[in-house]
Amino acid sequence: MKDTIFDLTGRTTLVTGGSKGIGRAIATLFAQAGAELFLCSRHEDELAATAAEIRRAANTRVAYLAADLTIRDDVLRLADAALRTMGKVDILVNNAGANLPQAIHEIRDDDWDRLLQINLTAAMALTRAIVPDMKRRRWGRVLFLSSIMGLASTPGRNAYSAAKAALLGLARACALDLGPYNITVNCLAPGPILTDMPMAILSPEQKEALAARTAFNRWGRPEEVAGPALLLASEAGSYITGTVLVVDGGALARVF
Q1: How far apart are CA 207 and CA 162, in angstroms?
Q2: C-alpha to C-alpha distance for 28 and 48, rounded to whole angstroms
Q3: Residues 6 or more apart whose Cβ sits within 8 Å of residue 22
Q4: Which of 17, 70, 123, 227 has its CA 20 to 30 A from that of 99?
Q5: Which of 64, 160, 181, 239 is catalytic?
Q6: Is residue 160 annotated as part of the catalytic site, yes or no?
Q7: Structural domain boundaries of the chain?
Protein backbone atom coordinates (compact mmCIF):
# COMPACT_ATOMS: atom_id res chain seq x y z
CA MET A 1 0.00 0.00 0.00
CA LYS A 2 3.00 2.29 0.40
CA ASP A 3 3.92 4.87 -2.26
CA THR A 4 0.30 5.25 -3.37
CA ILE A 5 -2.32 7.92 -2.90
CA PHE A 6 -3.74 5.72 -0.13
CA ASP A 7 -0.49 5.84 1.87
CA LEU A 8 -0.86 7.37 5.36
CA THR A 9 2.81 7.25 6.34
CA GLY A 10 3.58 10.24 8.54
CA ARG A 11 -0.08 10.83 9.38
CA THR A 12 -1.48 10.55 12.89
CA THR A 13 -5.06 9.39 13.39
CA LEU A 14 -7.32 9.80 16.42
CA VAL A 15 -10.14 7.23 16.49
CA THR A 16 -12.93 7.35 19.06
CA GLY A 17 -14.67 4.09 19.81
CA GLY A 18 -11.44 2.57 18.56
CA SER A 19 -11.24 -0.61 20.62
CA LYS A 20 -13.75 -2.71 18.69
CA GLY A 21 -16.15 -2.86 15.77
CA ILE A 22 -15.91 -0.28 13.01
CA GLY A 23 -13.45 1.89 14.96
CA ARG A 24 -11.06 -0.98 15.43
CA ALA A 25 -11.32 -1.97 11.76
CA ILE A 26 -10.57 1.59 10.65
CA ALA A 27 -7.62 1.85 13.05
CA THR A 28 -6.22 -1.47 11.84
CA LEU A 29 -6.42 -0.55 8.15
CA PHE A 30 -4.99 2.92 8.73
CA ALA A 31 -2.06 1.39 10.60
CA GLN A 32 -1.46 -0.96 7.67
CA ALA A 33 -1.41 2.14 5.45
CA GLY A 34 1.34 3.63 7.63
CA ALA A 35 -0.54 5.84 10.10
CA GLU A 36 0.27 6.26 13.77
CA LEU A 37 -2.75 5.94 16.05
CA PHE A 38 -4.30 7.37 19.17
CA LEU A 39 -7.32 5.33 20.24
CA CYS A 40 -10.10 6.11 22.68
CA SER A 41 -12.97 4.17 24.21
CA ARG A 42 -14.44 3.72 27.67
CA HIS A 43 -12.76 0.34 28.21
CA GLU A 44 -9.04 0.42 29.01
CA ASP A 45 -8.60 -3.36 28.83
CA GLU A 46 -10.07 -3.50 25.32
CA LEU A 47 -7.94 -0.54 24.26
CA ALA A 48 -4.77 -2.18 25.55
CA ALA A 49 -5.53 -5.40 23.70
CA THR A 50 -6.37 -3.61 20.45
CA ALA A 51 -3.28 -1.40 20.65
CA ALA A 52 -1.00 -4.39 21.28
CA GLU A 53 -2.49 -6.33 18.37
CA ILE A 54 -2.12 -3.43 15.94
CA ARG A 55 1.45 -2.74 17.06
CA ARG A 56 2.39 -6.37 16.40
CA ALA A 57 0.69 -6.51 13.02
CA ALA A 58 1.69 -3.12 11.61
CA ASN A 59 4.79 -2.17 13.62
CA THR A 60 3.50 1.34 14.17
CA ARG A 61 3.03 3.66 17.12
CA VAL A 62 -0.28 3.20 18.94
CA ALA A 63 -1.27 5.14 22.07
CA TYR A 64 -4.64 5.23 23.80
CA LEU A 65 -6.77 6.81 26.51
CA ALA A 66 -9.87 5.49 28.26
CA ALA A 67 -12.50 8.24 28.41
CA ASP A 68 -16.26 8.67 28.62
CA LEU A 69 -17.29 11.04 25.84
CA THR A 70 -20.65 11.75 27.46
CA ILE A 71 -18.58 13.89 29.86
CA ARG A 72 -17.42 17.17 28.31
CA ASP A 73 -14.25 17.31 30.42
CA ASP A 74 -13.28 13.86 29.11
CA VAL A 75 -13.68 15.08 25.52
CA LEU A 76 -11.30 17.95 26.20
CA ARG A 77 -8.94 15.66 28.09
CA LEU A 78 -8.85 13.35 25.09
CA ALA A 79 -8.03 16.14 22.66
CA ASP A 80 -5.25 17.42 24.92
CA ALA A 81 -3.79 13.95 25.48
CA ALA A 82 -3.79 13.09 21.77
CA LEU A 83 -2.07 16.32 20.76
CA ARG A 84 0.50 16.14 23.57
CA THR A 85 1.27 12.45 23.09
CA MET A 86 1.37 12.34 19.30
CA GLY A 87 2.46 15.90 18.58
CA LYS A 88 -0.36 16.39 16.06
CA VAL A 89 -3.60 14.89 14.78
CA ASP A 90 -3.92 14.75 11.00
CA ILE A 91 -7.03 12.57 10.79
CA LEU A 92 -9.93 12.60 13.24
CA VAL A 93 -12.39 9.72 13.11
CA ASN A 94 -15.47 10.49 15.22
CA ASN A 95 -16.75 6.94 15.53
CA ALA A 96 -17.96 6.55 19.14
CA GLY A 97 -21.70 6.05 19.41
CA ALA A 98 -24.55 4.41 21.29
CA ASN A 99 -28.15 3.44 20.69
CA LEU A 100 -31.11 2.77 22.96
CA PRO A 101 -34.35 1.85 21.17
CA GLN A 102 -37.31 3.75 22.65
CA ALA A 103 -40.50 5.09 21.10
CA ILE A 104 -40.95 8.86 21.22
CA HIS A 105 -43.61 8.55 23.95
CA GLU A 106 -41.26 6.38 26.04
CA ILE A 107 -37.86 8.04 25.83
CA ARG A 108 -36.72 9.80 28.99
CA ASP A 109 -34.97 13.17 29.02
CA ASP A 110 -31.76 11.76 30.49
CA ASP A 111 -31.59 9.02 27.83
CA TRP A 112 -32.21 11.57 25.06
CA ASP A 113 -29.50 13.86 26.44
CA ARG A 114 -26.99 11.03 26.82
CA LEU A 115 -27.55 9.69 23.30
CA LEU A 116 -27.23 13.12 21.71
CA GLN A 117 -24.10 13.79 23.75
CA ILE A 118 -22.26 10.65 22.66
CA ASN A 119 -23.52 10.54 19.07
CA LEU A 120 -23.43 14.25 18.21
CA THR A 121 -22.20 16.75 20.78
CA ALA A 122 -19.00 14.87 21.66
CA ALA A 123 -18.09 14.69 17.96
CA MET A 124 -18.64 18.44 17.61
CA ALA A 125 -16.64 19.26 20.74
CA LEU A 126 -13.74 17.00 19.82
CA THR A 127 -13.62 18.36 16.28
CA ARG A 128 -13.65 21.90 17.61
CA ALA A 129 -10.72 21.08 19.91
CA ILE A 130 -8.64 19.33 17.23
CA VAL A 131 -9.10 21.45 14.09
CA PRO A 132 -7.09 24.51 15.22
CA ASP A 133 -3.94 22.36 14.97
CA MET A 134 -5.01 21.15 11.52
CA LYS A 135 -5.65 24.74 10.43
CA ARG A 136 -2.16 25.83 11.49
CA ARG A 137 -0.64 23.04 9.40
CA ARG A 138 -3.17 23.51 6.58
CA TRP A 139 -3.97 19.81 6.24
CA GLY A 140 -6.56 17.61 7.86
CA ARG A 141 -9.26 15.01 7.49
CA VAL A 142 -12.36 14.82 9.70
CA LEU A 143 -14.70 11.82 9.45
CA PHE A 144 -18.04 11.50 11.21
CA LEU A 145 -19.57 8.04 11.47
CA SER A 146 -23.23 8.63 10.77
CA SER A 147 -25.61 5.83 9.77
CA ILE A 148 -28.31 5.01 7.27
CA MET A 149 -30.52 5.66 10.30
CA GLY A 150 -29.71 9.33 9.68
CA LEU A 151 -31.19 9.02 6.18
CA ALA A 152 -34.12 6.73 7.01
CA SER A 153 -35.27 5.13 10.24
CA THR A 154 -37.21 2.40 12.00
CA PRO A 155 -39.53 2.59 15.02
CA GLY A 156 -37.85 3.44 18.29
CA ARG A 157 -34.73 5.12 16.91
CA ASN A 158 -35.67 8.72 17.76
CA ALA A 159 -32.56 10.04 19.51
CA TYR A 160 -30.19 7.90 17.44
CA SER A 161 -31.69 8.90 14.09
CA ALA A 162 -31.86 12.55 15.12
CA ALA A 163 -28.19 12.60 16.11
CA LYS A 164 -27.00 10.71 13.04
CA ALA A 165 -28.98 13.01 10.74
CA ALA A 166 -27.52 16.04 12.51
CA LEU A 167 -24.01 14.75 11.81
CA LEU A 168 -24.74 15.08 8.09
CA GLY A 169 -25.54 18.75 8.50
CA LEU A 170 -22.59 19.28 10.81
CA ALA A 171 -20.22 17.74 8.25
CA ARG A 172 -21.50 19.97 5.46
CA ALA A 173 -21.15 23.13 7.53
CA CYS A 174 -17.69 22.16 8.81
CA ALA A 175 -16.56 21.35 5.26
CA LEU A 176 -17.34 24.92 4.22
CA ASP A 177 -15.67 26.38 7.31
CA LEU A 178 -12.51 24.33 6.93
CA GLY A 179 -12.07 23.92 3.18
CA PRO A 180 -9.92 27.06 2.88
CA TYR A 181 -7.41 25.36 5.21
CA ASN A 182 -7.16 22.18 3.07
CA ILE A 183 -9.22 20.20 5.58
CA THR A 184 -11.89 17.83 4.30
CA VAL A 185 -14.93 16.87 6.36
CA ASN A 186 -17.15 13.94 5.43
CA CYS A 187 -19.60 11.39 6.79
CA LEU A 188 -19.72 7.65 6.43
CA ALA A 189 -23.19 6.14 6.74
CA PRO A 190 -22.93 2.40 7.40
CA GLY A 191 -25.93 0.13 7.05
CA PRO A 192 -26.25 -3.27 8.72
CA ILE A 193 -22.72 -4.00 9.93
CA LEU A 194 -21.80 -6.86 12.25
CA THR A 195 -20.84 -5.04 15.44
CA ASP A 196 -21.81 -5.40 19.10
CA MET A 197 -24.38 -2.60 19.06
CA PRO A 198 -26.97 -4.01 16.63
CA MET A 199 -26.34 -7.56 17.77
CA ALA A 200 -27.30 -6.53 21.31
CA ILE A 201 -30.53 -4.67 20.54
CA LEU A 202 -32.07 -6.50 17.57
CA SER A 203 -34.14 -9.66 17.61
CA PRO A 204 -33.19 -12.58 15.34
CA GLU A 205 -36.12 -11.67 13.10
CA GLN A 206 -34.95 -8.06 12.80
CA LYS A 207 -31.41 -9.18 11.96
CA GLU A 208 -32.71 -11.47 9.23
CA ALA A 209 -34.95 -8.74 7.82
CA LEU A 210 -32.07 -6.26 7.64
CA ALA A 211 -29.86 -8.76 5.85
CA ALA A 212 -32.67 -9.39 3.36
CA ARG A 213 -32.86 -5.66 2.55
CA THR A 214 -29.32 -5.63 1.17
CA ALA A 215 -28.37 -6.58 -2.37
CA PHE A 216 -26.12 -9.31 -0.96
CA ASN A 217 -28.60 -10.78 1.54
CA ARG A 218 -26.06 -10.48 4.32
CA TRP A 219 -24.71 -8.13 6.96
CA GLY A 220 -21.54 -6.19 6.23
CA ARG A 221 -18.25 -6.56 8.05
CA PRO A 222 -16.49 -3.70 9.88
CA GLU A 223 -13.58 -4.08 7.45
CA GLU A 224 -15.96 -3.16 4.62
CA VAL A 225 -16.45 0.26 6.21
CA ALA A 226 -12.72 0.75 6.80
CA GLY A 227 -11.91 0.81 3.07
CA PRO A 228 -14.21 3.76 2.31
CA ALA A 229 -12.82 5.51 5.40
CA LEU A 230 -9.31 5.14 3.99
CA LEU A 231 -10.44 6.71 0.73
CA LEU A 232 -11.77 9.77 2.56
CA ALA A 233 -8.73 10.04 4.84
CA SER A 234 -6.03 9.75 2.19
CA GLU A 235 -4.84 11.87 -0.73
CA ALA A 236 -7.19 9.82 -2.89
CA GLY A 237 -10.05 11.72 -1.27
CA SER A 238 -8.49 15.18 -1.38
CA TYR A 239 -11.36 16.69 -3.44
CA ILE A 240 -14.20 15.00 -1.55
CA THR A 241 -15.72 17.12 1.20
CA GLY A 242 -19.10 17.93 2.68
CA THR A 243 -20.66 14.68 1.58
CA VAL A 244 -21.88 11.34 2.89
CA LEU A 245 -20.65 8.00 1.61
CA VAL A 246 -23.25 5.29 2.21
CA VAL A 247 -21.86 1.83 2.97
CA ASP A 248 -24.99 -0.29 3.29
CA GLY A 249 -24.80 -3.15 0.79
CA GLY A 250 -27.63 -1.57 -1.18
CA ALA A 251 -30.13 -1.50 1.70
CA LEU A 252 -31.37 2.00 0.89
CA ALA A 253 -31.76 1.12 -2.78
CA ARG A 254 -34.71 -1.15 -1.98
CA VAL A 255 -38.23 0.29 -1.89
CA PHE A 256 -40.08 -2.94 -1.03
Answers
A1: 22
A2: 14
A3: 95, 145, 190, 193, 195, 222, 225, 226
A4: 227
A5: 160
A6: yes
A7: 12-248
